[in-house]
Write a structure and sequence with these properties.
Number of strands: 16
Radius of gyration: 22 Å
Number of helices: 13
CATH topology of the largest domain: Aspartate Aminotransferase, domain 2
Order of helices and strands: HEEEHHHEHEHEHEEEHEEEHHHEEHEEH
Number of domains: 2
Largest sheet: 7 strands, mixed
Strand order of the largest sheet: 4-12-11-10-7-5-6
Bound molecules: pyridoxal-5'-phosphate
Length: 430
C-alpha cells in the first residue's frame, strides 16, 4: 500500500507550522529553526549548520548539551526505576539529591519537588500562605520587586512585574506590593518602605531574585542589599523567598547566589540548570520555621500540593549526575576560566562607544545597545537576534539588552567570536 501522508513531503518547518504553538512566539515571528542534534556548546540545524548556544537554551544547559556523563546516568536510571508515585513512596535518587542540595543550604531542612521554575515558585508562595493559615493568622499579600520575573503560572505571574507578559490577567492576580530592586541610589528608600510594609503584619512573604534580576535585563545588585532586605523581613516575621531559578548553579560566580549573602532566606527555589539542562525538575527548599507549621495531627493542615511527576527518578538521576560534575575540580577550573574570560570581554566591549552599561557577573555578560529604556517589544531585539544568528551565534536579547549566559564548556574561541561579532553591532541597520 502506498503511504498517502502529505507530512512525508513537507520539511520540519512546514510540519511544525501546521501543528505547533511555540512559547513566547507571536504568529508573525520568524519560522522556528529545526535542530537535529546538540553537543557541547553547539546546536546543529537540519542543514548541518552549527550554531553556538550563548543562551544555554533558555538558561538551562550547564556543562554542555548531551553531556555523556549525564546521558549515561539518565539511561541507567530509565532502565531501573523510571517513575513511581511520590505520595506514600520514595526512592534513593530523590533522597540523595535532597541531601546533597541541602548541604549547600545549611539553614534549610526540607525539599519539595516539582517540574519547573514556575512551580518551584508557586509552591514557595503556597507554603508561606499556608504557614500563616495553619497558625490561624491568614495573610494574603506578598512583597516583590519591580522588574521581577518568577514564571508564568498564576501565582508566579502575580509576583512578577505587571507588564505585557501578564497584562491579560491583571484582574485575576493576587495583591502584591512592589518595591524598587535595590541599587546604590535607592537602597535607603527601599529599606524604609520595606520596614513600613513588614510592620503592618499583612504580608505573608517577600520574594526576590538574589543578586541578579534575569528577565529584567540582567540587572545586578550588591549581595549586602539582599542581606538587609532579609534582615528586615525576619525582624517582622515576613517569610523570605530566594528565587534562584536563574541564578543557581554557578551563574553568579558561586554555586548559588545565596552563598554570597550574609543572611539566609527561609525558602529557596531552584530549577533550570538543576539537571544540567537535560530534564524538567524544580525544587523548593524550606527552613524549619516554615515546615514547623505543617507539623500537626490535624490533616486539614496538610500541604495539599503535588504533580504527577513529582521527584521523577530519571530527572533526579540527571540532577545527581549534574552535581557530580559541579563537584569536580575540572569543572571549577572551567568556571574560573569562563569568569576570567567574560571579565576580559567586558573590558574590551567597554571600549565600544555604542554599547552602554557593559556589565559582568560570574557566567553572565550583558549590555544595552542604545541608551533607550528597556522594552521587551523593542523592535531592535529581533534585528540583534538575526544579526548574531546570521553569523551562527544564538543570542536572544531582552529588548535592547544583549546578554550571554553560555554553557560552561564554551571555548575561548567561541567567546572571541561573540566579542568580534558584537564589535560589529554598530553596522546594524537602524
Ligand atoms: C528567576 C526565574 N524564576 C522563575 C522562572 C520560571 O521558570 P520556568 O520557565 O522553568 O517555569 C524563571 C524563568 O526564566 C526565572 O528566570
Amino acid at each position: 500500500m502506498t503511504a498517502t501522508y502529505p507530512e512525508t513531503f513537507m520539511n520540519l518547518s512546514e510540519r511544525d507550522k501546521k501543528v505547533i504553538w511555540h512559547p513566547y512566539t507571536s504568529a508573525y515571528s520568524p519560522t522556528p529553526i529545526p535542530i537535529v542534534k546538540a553537543e557541547g556548546a553547539y546546536l546543529y540545524t537540519e542543514e548541518g549548520k552549527k550554531i553556538i548556544d550563548f543562551n544555554s537554551s533558555w538558561w538551562v544547559t550547564a556543562h554542555g548539551h548531551s553531556h555523556p556523563y549525564i546521558a549515561q546516568a539518565i539511561s541507567q536510571q530509565a532502565s531501573t526505576l523510571e517513575q513511581v508515585i511520590f505520595a506514600g513512596f520514595t526512592h534513593e535518587p530523590a533522597i540523595r539529591l535532597a541531601e546533597r542540595i541541602l548541604s549547600y543550604f545549611p539553614t534549610l531542612s526540607k525539599v519539595f519537588f516539582s517540574d519547573n521554575g514556575s512551580t518551584a515558585v508557586e509552591i514557595a508562595l503556597k507554603m508561606c500562605f499556608q504557614a500563616w493559615y495553619n497558625q490561624d493568622k491568614p495573610r494574603s499579600k506578598v512583597i516583590a520587586f519591580e522588574g521581577s520575573y518568577h514564571g508564568d503560572t498564576f501565582g508566579s505571574m502575580s509576583v512578577s512585574e505587571r507588564d505585557i507578559f501578564t497584562a491579560a490577567f491583571h484582574t485575576l492576580l493576587f495583591d502584591v506590593k512592589y518595591l524598587p530592586y535595590p541599587t546604590k541610589n535607592n537602597f535607603k528608600q527601599v529599606f524604609e518602605e520595606l520596614e513600613y510594609l513588614c510592620k503592618t503584619d499583612e504580608y505573608a512573604s517577600c520574594i526576590i531574585e538574589p543578586i541578579v534580576q534575569g528577565v529584567a535585563g540582567m540587572r545586578i545588585t550588591h549581595p549586602d542589599f539582599i542581606a538587609e532586605i532579609w534582615k528586615i523581613c525576619k525582624k517582622y516575621n515576613v517569610f523570605t523567598i530566594a528565587d534562584e531559578v536563574m541564578t543557581g548553579f554557578a551563574r553568579t560566580g558561586t554555586l548559588f547566589a545565596c552563598q554570597q549573602i550574609e543572611i539566609q532566606p527561609d525558602i529557596v527555589c531552584l530549577s533550570k540548570c538543576l539537571t544540567g539542562g537535560f530534564l524538567p525538575l524544580g525544587l523548593t527548599l524550606c527552613a524549619d520555621d516554615i515546615f514547623e507549621h505543617f507539623l500537626t495531627q490535624d490533616k486539614t493542615k496538610t500541604f495539599f500540593h503535588g504533580h504527577s511527576f513529582t521527584a521523577n527518578p530519571i530527572a533526579c538521576a540527571a540532577a545527581n549526575a549534574n552535581l557530580d560534575l559541579f563537584e569536580q575540580k575540572e569543572t571549577r577550573d572551567k568556571l574560573n576560566t569562563l569568569y576570567t574570560n567574560l571579565a576580559a570581554i567586558k573590558e574590551e566591549l567597554n571600549k565600544c562607544t555604542f554599547l552602554y552599561n557593559v556589565r559582568h557577573i560570574g557566567g553572565i555578560l550583558a549590555f544595552e545597545l542604545g541608551s533607550s529604556e528597556r522594552h521587551y517589544l523593542n523592535a531592535i531585539s529581533t534585528k540583534i537576534r538575526s544579526f548574531y544568528l546570521e553569523r551562527s551565534l544564538l543570542v536572544r536579547p531582552l529588548g535592547n539588552t544583549v546578554y550571554i549566559i553560555p554553557p560552561y564548556c564554551i571555548t575561548e574561541q567561541d567567546l572571541l567570536e561573540f566579542e568580534q561579532v558584537t564589535q560589529c553591532l554598530h553596522f546594524l541597520p537602524a
